[in-house]
Amino acid sequence: MFYRDERVALFIDGANLYAATKALGFDIDYKLLLSEFMRRGKMVRAFYYTALIESEEYSPVRPLVDWLNYNGFTLITKPVKVFIDSTGRRKIKGNMDIELVVDAMEMADHVDHIVLFSGDGDFAPLVAALQRKGVRVSVVSTIRSHPPIIADSLRRQADNFIELEELKDVIGKPPRPVPVEMPVEEAPIAANDD
């Protein structure tokens, strides 16, 4: 439930939201997402959190990050840490939880409603702390993937759970048309008049 006069802030856990949309089989149009939540209340800020691999020449997330940065989102990024685990495998770590928690607690005095795009159960204590400050919290994730992306503890703590799949028609990118190969017509075989 949203009220048109309430001040709203979005907190998007980029990696978690990406995993949820991939599990559901669609991509988000972030311009539509921003418009949808601006329609629901008075948008104060829309934060997007992601870790970036800076050592690579091209990062697939870079075009999205650049677009978001120029189109009304506040980007919070940090470089991923690359390390070798005990088995000798290269591992990448880029957790943005602390940054999101600190920003949400700082924004709590300036908003009435926070919308958290994540299913990470580690955020349940954050939701409880925000609620104690008088902030309503909606969580956007999915229970329709296998396994569900949202932790039960987070879903229970939230004031409102929004099923991501139900937003697909509102914030999803239209599917790209799949090129259809046209069958090559065979040239008619000329009759032999011999």
Please describe what this structure looks like.
The protein has 194 residues and is an alpha/beta fold. It has a domain at 7-83 and 91-104 and 123-144 and 152-171: 5'-nuclease (Rossmann fold, 3-Layer(aba) Sandwich). Helix content is 31%, strand content 24%. The protein has helices spanning 14-24, 30-40, 62-70, 97-107, 124-132, 152-157, 168-171, and strands at residues 7-13, 42-52, 74-79, 81-84, 90-93, 113-117, 136-141, 160-163. It is globular.
Helix content: 25-40%
In the CATH hierarchy, what is the architecture of the domain at 7-83 and 91-104 and 123-144 and 152-171 at level 2? Answer: 3-Layer(aba) Sandwich
What's the CATH H-level homologous superfamily of the domain at 7-83 and 91-104 and 123-144 and 152-171? 5'-nuclease
- How is the main sheet built? 6 strands, parallel
Helical stretch tally: 7
What is the residue-mean pLDDT, rounded to a whole number?
Answer: 90
Which range does the strand content fall in? 15-25%
- E-strand count: 8
Helix-strand pattern, N to C? EHHEHEEEHEHEHEH
**Which CATH class of the domain at 7-83 and 91-104 and 123-144 and 152-171 applies here?**
Alpha Beta
Spatial gap, N to C terminus = 83 Å
The structure class reads alpha/beta
Shape: globular
**Unreliable runs, pLDDT <50, ≥5 residues?**
none
CATH topology descriptor of the domain at 7-83 and 91-104 and 123-144 and 152-171? Rossmann fold
Strand order of the largest sheet: 3-2-1-6-7-8
Radius of gyration, in angstroms, nearest whole number: 22 Å
